[in-house]
Structure formats: structure tokens, C-alpha cells
Specification:
Helices cover 26% and strands 16% of the residues of chain A. By secondary structure, chain A is α/β, with parallel strands linked by helices. In chain A, helix 3 crosses helix 4. At the A-B interface, helix 7 and helix 8 of A face helix 7 and helix 8 of B. Chains A, B, C, D: It catalyses: aldehydo-D-ribose 5-phosphate = D-ribulose 5-phosphate.
């Protein structure tokens, strides 16, 4: 059902380049529909994508082949450390997601911007790739204080999701995740902003997830072991905890606010966060509640109905391709910066 | 499915009713001004109920026939006005609900107390009927500021719902409603306290609704025309409004705070209230979304899943008899004070 | 100390015009520095002000003498009703305040916009009088939801006060008041937005008050009898009430939220409002606490220090002319629409 | 002005102290296992204090010499580590503060309970020293979630400060501090609970501070270098930051919520915390604003008046001995557990 585009940058048998965009000439492999390549062989790199893109769309303004390349791409010359490799792949993932989902940069695009270390590169990609005159017509909707600051620092047009007129949708939303399963179900909420994140995501025609390899998971709860973040009304916290235990959660807890605050974390909405660990969630099939094993959709449907629960950190159900008029929680694609410098794409 | 106990207090000359489903057949005396009993046949009065009740349960402690009767019952001597009649029937409804659901007044009972003009009589009934030593072992859980004050004014033991240990339930909850349909689905939230009210109701083994005849309705949306109260995150208000319109709501609006506050009402939870009118909700069958006609459960299931919705003012689904371990939203019974002074009971 | 500019529109002995700006030729009286008139006698009217203004500043764009006049001015042809008279004078007051404090309409002006029925005319005046290209460089900062809507409806550039960079000030703020004393001390907070209003006012180089004659008062507490609105932390409400009573407040109360909300009004900041009536506040001299009589500044200084008080609805102390670097609470001028159609100006 | 009772527990060979200002001169016996003394005469230990206390007050009930001693006192047998020493001295400080300020344990005492590691020992002291029948008549008022839990865990009667009737005061409040100067001015708010802490403290007849030696300071800002915690309305944060810089604060910042929450810490009151470092605050004299040096009271008076500031973490001005009717912010005494196992008492 889901296609995996694993865009190898290293390790592919005929790869002649060091990495990413520092590369000189590249033998490109046959490209898939997402990142078509006119050439014959070799791997797809960000440089290729970006220059391909610009050669198709912005001939006249592209005075230098590197004109629109991100700065670090042009400056790195030495062998990257493992940390650098990951940062580079995250950045590449961000550039790919932007080229794939914003081309041909229509005017007046409304874009949701989430948080997370990879989203920073999304904003860099947008400011680098989108022509300034077009960029000035676009508006950007943050999912929280962090992304609000990111939007403002980049000099982009900030707008709030509460200003989106009823019946209108954002064109696309780029956001991270704490864990992603093969069906593109997500856990989000490590930063306690899940409610606003879900509102922005479901206000978008499509949601594109960007993250690093550590977020890829065979089943939710495998990598992210702290539990599903659940935003609850403080006076219902005890009741929700009891309900969660009855449903098989293994030691759900109210998230503490230390060191900055004694007592519980209070969200921007005045709520608390309960972190509810469950056994790894089944991607397919049904739940076996006897064993405390849940299928994602069934668990999510049960959690959201608990009185006192404001919102849950499970993003599930439909994606933007399936839901005609908004409201989809799942991304249409997830881009991961891999450990080896490559990008992996998971498509719905 | 639902039985109607229509307990006439005036006019019916020879009624032999099954009182509150707990007593056997009763020959009821004619009713006097408030609850006078001059003669032989027929209607149930509060005095009758209460003294019947006590003669069966508390022989030894009942030193005076009027000992436990509410004060006004003993003092009224003139023909009641229509307004008085309604107040009397609401009071009677409250006393009936308490006798039906608190007998035999077990110690350490945990009782939810809601708001509304009829609930005031519930508290009067409890303080009147429950022996003081037992009363001092009971704890009372309010659904909001109004009922908190009511509990404190009556000198009862106040406790907050957030103190209820995980996995524990209240024994019973008495609360009002803005509209009640024949299947005991409710609309609540006219006072903007619906979130806390739902948490208290669903934290109870059984929820008992007390109200006046104006709240009885063949279909939700018939009597209460302001719309279903929906508690929403302020930044999602526009998105929720758009979604509601798409679902067929006729002019949903954010509830204004005037005269006390410019702008929107802010709830005790920091949320806003959207009032969403729909065509009268179908009690049975399924929704016909083309016509904008919804069946209660289907609408509620759809509303609660809209991101940005914290809670909805529809109480639906199971009642406490059906849901073993709490979580039921519907009352097991509803008691209505009728226009003619009588009480109508709607049972699940 | 304070000057009263009483700009008579009716009743002045040599007045030949009906009203406002519908007037034909006008005999103008000698004008003061604020509204200079080239002509000889007669009263200053909005038409005069506006056309004078434009003849001095926008010759070329003023193709029709009525081009920039507000619509209603041109449409009224009959003798105004008392209600109309007041509305017209409020509108005139608004136009005067804008011409007095925004001329010569510098670019990039940052303007605070408050709430109240007269402020609506301020926005009309701004959109009418400021040339569109200049207007598009201005930003407008609301004091609450109502003024936010007003700004957006007028198509003006909305910005939030939390976005004002540290150390920066708004150029001017136009806002209403619930009561104004001769020293330009104010009571505000009838709409429960006093905290945000005070932040916007004190973030401005100067604050200009616009209101109608009903808000003019010899001493605060004379006209506005509901009490000084005080925004308090809910858990401190009782303590604050006790403190207020000890200070001589006559029946301070938590403001109720009905009909939209049971219990207390909750402000946009999650606080409650206590309305604290005091005997009329002394404009000068000192307090006589024995008699429960307070001088404005002394009362304000005492109130703001009560723990649990977030902000108070007294605007007092310095005005923008006196306070070099912002932080002033009092307006530099107050414009009142009078009952007789005229405008009264109170200057610091 | 302030007296220092330095109660050495180790090393002082022939101390005759005035214990807690309540006892007469005391010859102290050799200490027991918990606070062993190598010397022959003299040092005060918790055991001594407690047994002295009980021998004077509760002869009849004291069947065993260790009956009322805290458990750890009886269990420790080895030479304490430095950490143990500090814990022991904090505990001793707590026991001393309770004996000094709760004797003779009057019934129905209302006691404020704050947070901090030393307050835990205060609760231990109360439950250990107060006779159970008296204890059951006392009510305990927390300053936040942490102390609420502490009160409940100890099985004490919990009550909330908002339930204190207007005009009533707590008898005493025990709370910690982040820094204490020689005049008993305090910095509090490291746990973001300063608003509620100040309300509880100023609702008390007297406030008693308990802490460890690290909180003693010659001038506020010397030991606690993170800055004065200031609770601000989020939309005023920028404005407050600008004002603070203008006043000489060195790099004031909004406190971040990580790791539990992205963006700012949100307090239980929905506010943010700004931490504002200043040069060490002058205990006496006046401010020299040119040099950015402030006297405590002057700084506090200036900070509390900044619009957007809800409350400040400076506790200053009067103490409970000076302020007749409540409202005092400063403690009447501070008890410090010292590094060497002794207790130091600072009295107003």
C-alpha cells in the first residue's frame, strides 16, 4: 500500500560522489515519479533536484548553478562526521519535501509550519527555493510558539490558524513527528503542542511529515516509549488515568513541569499532558484488548471519546489524498533524513 | 423501551400508580393546595411520597409525621399560582429522584451535584431526608461554581471530581438538562459548564436527570433552539464553525459574553462555546446528511472528533445501567416537574 | 490645569448651519491651535476640520469637497433626532481626535485601537482621512476581540501588542472609557478587557480617549456606579473582596457571567472581575480613609499592590506628555460627543 | 535590627542559647545518635529540642522518650555524610520552626503549607508533634500542586485558599525561599508558583520561612543568579522585557518550558515567567538607578506597577508582626539548616 522511496546517497553501487550537494558530477539513477530526472543514471541528490527544478522553472533568474543552493551545501568540503551526516540528510529531506509539494510555487499559498529540528530546514528550503516575489504572497501558519518564532525569524508572513476563514484550507503543512509507523500513523506531542498541531494539520489539504530516521518505527510505541501524549482537562486527569489503565496503558502519568515549573506541565491551552504508554500499536488487523494490544485506529477512537480528553497525540485515519474537504490527520508523505546521509520517503 | 410514569398530583381522582418503580400499588389521597391530603382517593403528593417512604424505611426515627417534610410543604395553605405549581412539581420531582436513587442512604455515598433550578430541590431533599449522621459521611462533587456554592450553603461535604481516585466512581449524580428526548439523550451546556458536567456524569455509576416539563422534547433541537453547545479551543473556533456548517448546522455561532464581557464567553476551562443549531435530531434510525438531518449518536460521534472540539453538549450513547464501569453519559431516569403540579418520570 | 475646548455645533449665536458636515457655508469662530480656521467667525465643524485639513495637506487628491466625507454625513438631510445628534457628535469627536493626533499622517505609524461605540468612528475617520498608500504602511493594535474585529473589518493591518519589540512604543492609542474625571483619570473595564487595554495604552506615546457625554464626570464613581473593575486571580477573589471591604468599598462583588455563562465572568486572561464601588474618588488632595473617601492615585496605588490583583480599571498617574518613555496610563486628551451634537475636548 | 540565633549543633563546646526565643536558658544534654556531639556539653539537637519541648508540654502522653521522635532520628547510627548533615539540619530547622510557631497547638489552627525540600520536614514535624485529636481540627492550605500532594499524603485536612472567608487569616504559613537577605526580604518563584505563594503568605498572620544554608545571602541576587521571577501576562511579555531592561535588568528572559514543553513555561494561572537578573539588591539606603543598583523595596514597588506584571517573586515590605491585618509578605523568622548540621534562625 505504502511505497518506500529510498533515495540512496551513499552506498549505492555506482555512486561516485561524496554526498548531497557538495558533490561534483553525479551519475543519477532512474528517478521515480516524485523526482523525475532527465538524465540516465545515478542517485538523486538535493543539488540535482534543486537544479532540475530551477532549470525547468526559473531559467532566467538562475544566473549561477549554485545560486539557490543552501549555503552549507556550498561550503562543506571535508568528510562529514556522523552528526553532520544526519543533519545533512535531514536538510536534504526538507528540501525534497518542499520541491515535491510546493512546486510550482503558486502564489498566495497558505502553508502550515510545525516544529522540530527538520522543520527548520523546511523553512530554509522555502526561503531558498521560492522566488521572493512569490514568497511575499505566501502566508505561514505556525503550530506553536516555536514555529511562530521560526516563521518570524525567516521574515515570512505570519498568520494564525484562527484567522483561516471557515471553510478554507491551508494548501500544505510541514511538520515533524515523534514516531511514524509504516502506515503513516504518527505519535506527536513531545513538545506539548499536539492540540494546535492537529488543528493545523487537519486544516490542510495535505500534511507532509519531515523527520530523521530515529522516528521511523515498525509500530507506534516501539521507538517512542514515553507514551502517547494526551492533552487533558486538569480536573479530569485522575479519571483519564483510571480509564487509561483500564484500557491497558502501562503506567500512564501526568507530565511533570520541572525544572522550570513545579507540578504538572501546563500547555498553551491551559491543559495538562498525560503520557500513556501502550504496547506497540498494531498497524493492521484489530485490537486484542485481552492482551492489551490495540490497533491504532481503534485505540485512537476510544481515547478521543474519554470525557476529559481534549486531544490525543495519535494522528491516524485518513490522509489528505483520501479526505476531500480537510480534516485528515495522517501525512500524505513522510521524509526522513537517514543516518547514512540519504533520504527515505514514505508515501501513502 | 422507555416507560413513562406520569404521577398526577392534581385532578386524577382514582389513580393507582407504580410509584417510582420501587413502591407497590398505592391508593393516593386527593391533593390539596401544596400537597394537602384531605380525603381518600388518588394523587401522589410529596407528603405522601415522603411519609410513605419513611413509614416503610424509617419507622423508628419518624417521631412526627411532618418531621422530614420540606418546610414549604407544611406552610402553604392557599391555592397555588401556575408558577407555584411548577415550582412544587419540580420540588416533588427532586424528592422523588432522591428517594428512588439514594434509598437506603448508604454511608460514604459519593454524590455528584449539578446545576439548574430543580437541582436546588435535590439538595433540599437530601438534607431533609438523609439522617444527619449518615449525611456527614457522604461527599458531594459539584459540576461547577454554582453547584459548589449550593453544596457549601447546605453545609454538605464538598469534594472535587479531580480528587476521585483513578478507577473509582461516584454512586449517583443528580443534574439538570436543557432538553431531554424520549431516549434520554440530552442537550446540556446552556450555562457553559458542559465539560465539567460531562466529566462528573460519566464518573458516576448512574446519572439521574431532574428538570421541569419545558425540557421534555420529542427530538433534541425542538425545544432548545439555540443550538448544541460545543466547547472549543478558541484558536480553532473558525475551523469548527466551518466544519459545522459543512455538516448542516444552521448558523452556528460563538456565544457572546455580554453584558458582563465583550467578545466571547470564556468557560472555566479557558475555552469558547459554539452554539450549533441543527434540525431536530432523530431519536432512532440513521442520519440523512443530504437533508441535514442527523441521528443523535451519529452526530455526536462526528462532532466529538472534530479537532478543536474539547467537549460537546450532547449526552448520548449508554446509560449507567448499560455501561458497567462508568463512562455512561445518559441518565438512567429523568424526573420532570409538570405544569399541573405532577411529576413525570422517564426511565431508560 | 486642564483646558476645555467646547466646540459648539448648535446653539452658538451666529450659527447658520444645521449640523456637522452636511452644512453649506459656515461662519467660523476664531479657532485655537488645534483646529485653526482661516475664516472669521462661527463654530468649528467636522466638515471644516476635514476640509481645512485636506486643503492643507492633500490639495491634489481632493477632487470633490465631499470626497473624503463619511457617507452618513452626506446622506442626512432631515433634522436629527436626539439619538442621531449623539451619534453625530460621537462621530465628530472621533474625526476631531484623529485629525488632532494623526496629522500629518506619518508613514509606518503604529496605532492602538480600543473598543466602545465611539472608537468605531475613529476607525471610520482613519480609513476616510488617511491616504490609502499611507494607510497601508500603518499597523493597528487591538485591545481585545472587539477591536480586533473592527480592525479586520476595516481592512487595516492588524498586529498584536505582544509583537511590539521590547523598547518600542505605539505612536498613539484611541480608546473609550466608562468614566472620565476632570483630571483625565479614567475608569475602564466594563467589557472585562481592562488588562489588555492598559497594556496597549501604556505601550503608547500618547493615549487619546474618545467617548460620549455620559462618561464625563466630576469624580470617578459618580456616573459609573457599578464599581471599579478589578481583574483578579480566581483563587484570590475572596481575599481581595475582604481587602476591598476593609478599604471601604461598598459591596464589592465578583461579576456574574449570566446569561451566557453560569458562575463568574472569565476574562480572556483566565481571571475574574471584581466590581468594587467606592464613594466618588477625590480628584485632588489626599484620601480620608476614615470616611472611606479616597483620592484617585492613592486608591490606585493601594489596589494594585493587593496580592491577587492582576490589574485595575483605574487609569491614573501620568499621561503621555509627562512620561517620556511610555508607561503612561492617562490620556493626553479626551473627546466627548455631546448631547447637543457638539464636541467637548478635555486636554491634559 | 535582625537578631541571628546561630544554634550550633557541632563543635560549640559550651553553648547556652536562647532557644527559639521562647524557652529560657537551657543547658543542653549530649546529643543522641541522629545529631551526635563529640563534645560534652552543649549543642542543641533535634532530639533535644523535641524532647525538651515535650517534657515541658506533654508529660503525660510521652510514654517513651522516643515516642514522638521522627523515625530517621531513631534509625541513624553512623556518622552522617555531608549530605546527611544538611538533610538533618533542614529537618531540625523544620522541627524548630514548628515548635516555635505552633505551640501550644491550638485547635482549629489554619496553616499554610508551601513547597521546597525543607517544608517536607515541616509537615513531618506537624504530624509528629501535634496530638492527633488536635491535628484533626486543623486545616492546611497549599501554595501549589506540590504542597497539595504533601498535605494529602500526610493525611491532613486540605483546604484551598480561595475558601478562606473574606476578612479571615491563616494563623501561620510555612514556606521555603530561593534566597533570603538579612532583612528577610525573599526571592521566590523558582518553581513558578510565586503568585499563589504570595497570596497564601499574605493571607497569614505570620509567615515562617524554612530553608537550607544555600538560600542565605547578604543581598538578593548574590546566590540566586537566575533573576527575580516575575509572572506576566503572555501578551505583555515583550513590553515587560523592554521595561526591565530600561530599569537595568541584565538579560531578562522568558523562562523556557523544556524538556516537558516547547516554548514558554505556562504557570498554573496561565501566565509566563520572566526571570529578571539585577545587580545584588541593596538591603538598606536607596536605589542608584544610574548604576543599575536598586534597593529592594524601591525595585519591588516599581516592578509591581508595570502593566502586564501579575505578581513578582520579591517578598518585601512588612512582616506579620508589623502588619496588623494581614497582607505582610516578609517572614517573621527564617530557619536555615546549615552545612554543619546546625540551625540558624533569622528573626525580624
Amino acid at each position: 500500500m505504502n511505497k518506500h522511496h529510498h533515495l540512496l546517497l551513499r552506498g549505492a553501487s555506482s555512486l561516485t560522489v561524496s554526498l548531497c550537494k557538495r558533490s561534483g558530477p553525479t551519475h543519477l539513477p532512474p528517478a521515480g515519479p516524485l523526482f523525475p530526472s532527465s538524465g540516465a543514471g545515478g542517485t538523486t541528490t538535493a543539488a540535482t533536484i534543486v537544479s532540475n527544478f530551477f532549470s525547468r522553472h526559473h531559467h532566467s533568474t538562475l544566473t549561477s548553478p549554485h545560486h539557490h543552493l543552501p549555503k552549507t551545501a556550498r561550503m562543506s568540503t571535508t568528510t562529514p562526521s556522523p552528526v553532520d551526516l544526519i543533519e545533512q540528510s535531514k536538510r536534504l529531506a526538507a528540501f525534497q519535501s518542499v520541491t515535491a509539494h510546493l512546486v510550482p510555487f503558486p502564489s498566495r499559498t497558505r502553508i502550515g509550519i510545525g516544529s522540530g529540528s527538520t522543520v527548520i530546514y523546511v523553512v530554509e528550503a522555502i526561503t531558498t527555493l521560492v522566488p521572493p516575489t512569490t514568497l511575499s504572497t505566501m502566508t505561514f501558519y505556525p503550530t506553536g510558539a516555536q514555529s511562530e518564532q521560526l516563521i518570524e525569524s525567516a521574515g515570512l508572513n505570519l498568520q494564525y490558524i484562527n484567522k483561516l476563514p471557515p471553510g478554507t484550507l491551508l494548501d500544505v503543512c510541514f511538520d515533524g513527528a515523534d514516531e511514524v509507523d509504516p502506515n503513516l500513523n504518527l505519535i506527536k506531542g513531545g513538545g506539548a503542542c499536539l492540540w494546535q498541531e492537529k488543528i493545523v494539520a487537519t486544516s490542510s489539504k495535505k500534511f507532509v511529515c519531515v523527520a530523521d530516521f530515529r522516528k521511523m518505527s515498525p509500530a507506534l510505541g516501539t521507538m517512542w516509549k514515553k507514551g502517547i501524549p494526551i492533552e487533558v482537562l486538569p480536573l479530569a486527569a485522575n479519571r483519564v488515568l483510571g480509564e487509561l489503565e483500564r484500557m491497558g496503558s502501562l503506567g500512564p502519568k501526568v507530565r511533570p513541569g520541572l525544572p522550570g515549573k513545579a507540578g504538572a506541565v501546563v500547555t498553551d491551552n491551559g491543559m495538562w499532558i498525560v503520557d500513556a504508554p501502550f504496547r506497540p500499536l498494531r498497524v493492521e488487523g484489530t485490537s486484542d484488548k485481552e492482551k492489551g494490544e490495540w490497533q491504532v485506529d481503534e485505540l485512537a477512537d476510544a481515547l478521543i471519546k474519554i470525557p476529559g480528553v481534549a486531544e490525543i497525540g495519535l494522528f491516524y485515519g485518513k490522509n489528505g489524498n483520501q479526505a476531500g474537504e480537510g480534516g485528515a490527520q495522517k501525512p500524505v508523505e513522510a521524509y526522513f533524513g537517514m543516518e547514512d546521509g540519504s533520504v527515505k520517503v514514505l508515501s501513502a
